[in-house]
Amino acid sequence: MTQDGRAMLYGLGxxxxxxxxxxxxxxxxxxxxxxELMWLASLVSWALMGALVxxxxxxxxxxxRGWCTAAWAGLLNPVAYYLVxxxxxxxxxxxxxxxxxYTWALTMAFLAVPILGQRLTRLDVVAGVIAYSGVWVIAxxxxxxxxxxxxxxxxxxxxxxxxxxxLYWLLNARDHRPPLVAxxxxxxxxxxxxxxxxLAGPGLEWHGWAGLxxxxxxxxxxxxxxxxxxxxxxxxxxxxAKVSNLIFLSPPVSLLLLFLVVGEPILxxxxxxxxxxxxxxxxxxxxKSPAPAVQS
Length: 296
Description:
This protein is mainly alpha-helical.
């Protein structure tokens, strides 16, 4: 198999795993609070990343340097990002939270203007108008002339998650840590913070094997293995656009799984809004064709 062929397989594997996370989030949140899920998933992901760091001989680099960056980066991801994202999934149907979260790429383009000094093109603006009109359709569940959202806090949390995620990657633009080391260090900062929040708040309860399994799945696959596969894909492919366009496969599969596993009826407003969001993203991809940052 060619190197590009292997990269495409890695990319498809990552996208396939990301397609299951909306369902996994909803199943897990049916058993435990967002903070409990966040703590369990982060602990599992931290252990997996640590094992991979040791296996690849990166332990020395992981312990010697990079902790100043990890001190603030870990507070953004995993702590702030996933707590807000899980909060959105806890309040909204999975299909809506998933679709709204997909606007992170456009949020990144707009934030790059003040943070990195980049310029917006006309296509950036058009793509933003198209995509955020889809956000409006989803937020109002099709009642586009009604400013009363079905769940304004849930919608706000879903959009805030895109802001945190985009901010995290833009601030990390000059981060020279190896991706695997960076991920492990960030979770090394995040897990203790989440442990304190958990003990000071709701505490940790036993929610049965189904809840434990769902939480472990989120940490192992969504935060762990999918990240590794995506990094392999991006680093091995000859042209990043080949794998970056794979992200458009995830939302339709996510909707199907939410319908089959969780039993969520697919709302017409979600289909219309998601089509507009993906249309805006496709326009942006067609213009720039970068490899997107890792995303759930």
